[in-house]
Specification:
single chain; 172 residues; Leucine Aminopeptidase, subunit E, domain 1; globular; alpha/beta; 5 helices; 6-stranded mixed beta sheet; binds ligand AR6; Macro_dom; 38% helix
């Protein structure tokens, strides 16, 4: 059994097993949710990230959570939106898949996702929501999933998109 929920809020405040970071391929921090996570986790997070050798778009790597209430941070790198013909849907789906695979490997029970690529990287929010929800549902149906997956929306547009999409899928 698993639960799939959407909430509005700041992902850095959540006491879950892992929060997912919408990082860039350097894994050395940035703006948006990445900046917020590094600020809240403290400099030890950057020090661990510096040992990881970066991360390819669509892939994910895991670190400890340090001063965050979450135990782990799963850093994934979403695609930059370039119009949709540069493999963006597959790469975004891969972010969710690889993050959940890491959560499974580490036997984590609760994972919280931000709306990857929908900020600075410019992915259309409705299309990103569809990929996120469908990707997570597909994963949960096949694998031994984390018991709780949370979609954490920062803005009202994403919140409304996710509420509607989860209701359509029978999760709200
Ligand atoms: N909690 C939850 N969601 C948040 C928070 C927060 N504290 N802050 C922002 N968001 P973005 P991207 C939402 O730009 O598009 C960074 O510089 C935000 O409203 O953080 O994947 C990285 O280093 C949006 O819906 O990530 C990369 O260079 C979502 O998080 C680049 O931005 C993602 O927006 C990645 O761009």
């Amino acid at each position: 059994m698993f639960t799939l929920q959407v909430i509005q809020g700041d992902i850095t405040k959540l006491a879950v097993d892992a929060i997912v970071n919408a990082a860039n391929s350097s894994l050395l921090g940035g703006g948006g949710v990445d900046g917020a996570i590094h600020r809240a986790a403290g400099p030890e997070l950057l020090a661990e990230c510096q040992t990881l050798g970066g991360c390819a778009t669509g892939d994910a790597k895991i670190t400890k959570g340090y001063r965050l209430p979450a135990h782990y941070v799963i850093h994934t790198v979403g695609p930059v939106w370039q119009g949709g013909a540069a493999n963006e849907p597959e790469l975004l789906a891969s972010c969710y898949q690889r993050s959940l695979e890491l959560a499974n490997d580490y036997m984590l029970n609760s994972v919280a996702f931000p709306n990857i690529s929908t900020g600075v990287y410019g992915y259309p929010k409705d299309q990103a929501c569809e990929i996120a929800v469908q990707g997570v549902i597909n994963f949960l149906a096949i694998h031994n999933p984390p018991a709780s997956v949370l979609f954490v929306c920062f803005d009202l547009e994403n919140l409304s998109l996710y509420r509607n999409r989860l209701a359509k899928a029978g999760y709200a």
